[in-house]
User: Fold Ubiquinone biosynthesis accessory factor UbiK from Duganella lactea.
Amino acid sequence: MDMNTFFNDLQSKISQAIENSPAKDIEKNVKSMMTQGFSKLDLVTREEFDIQTQVLAKTRAKLEALETRLAALEAKAGGEAAKVDIAKGDGL
Assistant:
């Protein structure tokens, strides 16, 4: 008998034994109970979590870019305000 055939037969016999045993019913019942319990909780799927993580990363990058731009505009506006103050002071 070929080893692959032997293991395939053994695997199929074990699978049949498990399917016909009470263990399969217990597994179904436990899965059902867990599904009901999880549905009562406020949980998100991994896919939803990953999507929100990506959205947050993009939002942080945009915020950092806007903060940098704002700082540059404030510096420019501050420099122009100082030039106006100096020009007014020279006229006095």
